[in-house]
Structures are given as C-alpha cells and as structure tokens.
Amino acid sequence: MKKSEKTREFILEKCAPVFNQKGYTGTSLSDLENATGLTKGCIYGLFRNKEELAVACFDYARSLIHERMDSEAKKKDNAIEKLRAIFDMYRTFPEFWPVKGGCPILNTSIEADDTNPELQERVVKALEIWRRYFASIITRGIRNGEIQPNANPHVIATLFIALLEGATMMSKAYNDSSSLGIVLDKIDEMIEQLRVKK
Fold first, then answer.
1. Helix (H) or strand (E) run with residue 176 in it
2. What is the mean predicted confidence (pLDDT) over 185-190?
3. Tens digit of pLDDT for each residue in 31-76?
4. Torsion of CA 189, 194, 196, 198, to 10 degrees
5. Contact, 50 vs 118, CB < 8 A?
6. What domains are there in the chain, each with its CATH number?
7. CA distance 182 to 189
C-alpha cells in the first residue's frame, strides 16, 4: 500500500466517526483536522472537498458494517443460522457499531434526505446492497431446502431492514436498547417461521 493510500485510509478511519456523529453540515474543517492531526492541505490533497470526503467516509463506514455482517454469516452453514448470526450482532448495541455514532445509513439518510443528493444517493445504494445481501441468503436457503419455498426474499429483506432501522432509531432516541431487543426477538421469530420443517 502506497503512502497516499495509507494516509487516505487513516483519514477515513478518523473522519468517519466525526461525520457519523455530527453530520455533514455539523462537521467543520477544524473537526476534521482535530480528528486526524493533519492540515487542511493534507486532507484536501487526497479529497477534492468536504463532500467528497463525507461520501468516502460514508462508504467506508457502510463497508465496515457489511464486512462484519458477512464475517458472522460465513461462520454458519445454513441460511437460517446465517440470518440469526447477523441479527445477533445487533444485540450488543451500541457496541456493535464499528464507527462511533450508530448506524451511518440511518444517520446519513435523515440528514441528507433533502439537503445532499450525492449522500442520499449513497444511502439508497447502501440500502440496496443490504437488501440484495439478505435476499441472496434467503434465495440460497430456498434453493438448498432450508427456507420455505414460498418465501419472498425481496419482501422479507425489506421487512428485516425496516424493522432493524426503525428499532435502531428508537434505541438511539431513548438511549436504551429495549426497543431493539423487542424487534430482534420478532426478527428471530420471523426467521424461525422461514425454516423448512423436517
């Protein structure tokens, strides 16, 4: 890895939590300089502007979550257990989040909704990646005879994401993980109902 690539990775690692906690609008250049210990020239030598850096930080944070989910899923042999493993990670809320500040998809979607089309586009892309990921596990489970053949992967994936993000928002608002626990228990029931009974 070249020095510029290492510096870029370092900037993403240090700035992603700042953007995730303060948002795009609330993050100042001095916040980014303080987080990295680097000068404006160094930061903007690798990123054209604050928006490009914010988008890169969002992509970085999203990829960390996806990597963690995928890592947990790969430890399991069948689709039911893969889904369970993914959702069990969320039971450690808020420690689960690899980037301080909670779910970057939720945080960014709220802020970028009407103010930043590029970030909003990234949120939609992240949700689609997530939905396809869950749907692919469900589809493989159907194919392997582990999940009910009448299950609709797209609908179930959409429900999982909507339930999880809604519960994450409530847990963050109340500063209490009980809402998330209730939803994760319900998702567990949904996953069990998908199982092919033998």
1. none
2. 97
3. 999 999 999 999 999 999 999 999 999 999 999 999 999 999 999 9
4. 10
5. no
6. 59-194 (1.10.357.10)
7. 11
